[in-house]
Design a protein that fits this description.
Distance between the termini: 50 Å
Radius of gyration: 17 Å
Strand content: 15-25%
Number of strands: 9
CATH architecture: 3-Layer(aba) Sandwich
Helix content: 40-55%
Number of helices: 7
CATH superfamily: NAD(P)-binding Rossmann-like Domain
CATH topology: Rossmann fold
Length: 236
């Protein structure tokens, strides 16, 4: 394989909203971007519209699938310098009514998926003495609302795992950050859920991507770990 001419970013959970926005931002910033998602059709469509991207179908809850996907990325683009874990599993329900299997599946996507991806990507970053791992989270990582019983525990575990990773990797030159998104993200289904809300109620995927770009490119003298973003009108 020829030496890569661009730094490589690997983004999981590339859906039509935040994931695609992250890919666009890093592509515009000069990165070759590897995209992971379960939908091969969506990835193929993005590849056609965004030169410099490579789509790799992958369920991040499956360790063997992650192994194969990361190896494909290394072969086609090179070792990732940036990893953004944006894949998310979520479901509403209180602890009395929710199916325990849903909590387990969410844990596999949100927390185990992060572990699988980071364990594959981090060694090359350590060897290079640089790199960034950013996890997209939300306020469920900090509080357990009644109807988030199958979701909040998995995001809390994800955040604590990321913090543990940051303490291991920071001294080795690798920046790990957790982005708490306290907002309804501007997506088709959130617009249907809140049909009477004004535009500025929603957090724009492009703005989330911009903040991730900023965190990845922070100077070493001023790294962040816990990063929170919210629309200006959000109650908190």
């Amino acid at each position: 394989m020829a030496a890569p001419t661009k730094p490589v970013a690997l983004v999981s959970g590339v859906g039509p909203g935040t994931g695609s926005a992250i890919v666009r931002r890093f592509t515009a910033g000069g990165y070759a971007v590897a995209m992971l998602a379960r939908s091969a059709d969506r990835l193929a469509a993005l590849e056609r519209t965004l030169p410099g991207t490579v789509g790799v179908p992958c369920d991040v809850a499956d360790e063997r699938a992650v192994d194969a996907a990361v190896e494909t990325v290394r072969t086609r683009l090179g070792a990732p310098e940036v990893l953004v874990h944006n894949a998310v599993g979520g479901w509403f329900g209180d602890f009395l009514s929710v199916d325990p299997a849903i909590l387990e599946q969410n844990f596999r996507i949100n927390t185990m998926g992060l572990l699988y991806l980071a364990r594959r990507a981090a060694p090359a970053m350590i060897e290079a003495g640089k790199g960034s791992i950013v996890v997209t989270g939300n306020t469920s990582a900090l509080r357990g609302k009644a109807t988030f019983a199958a979701f909040a525990p998995t995001k809390a575990a994800q955040r604590v795992l990321a913090e543990s990773m940051a303490r291991t990797l920071g001294p080795k030159g690798v920046h790990v950050a957790y982005l708490v998104i306290d907002a309804a993200i501007d997506l088709a289904w959130t617009r249907r859920m809140y049909p009477d809300k004004p535009d500025d109620f929603f957090c724009k995927p492009d703005d989330i991507a911009g903040e991730i770009w900023h965190v990845v490119h922070q100077p070493r003298s001023a790294w962040s770990f816990n990063v929170e973003i919210r629309p200006y009108g959000e109650s908190w």
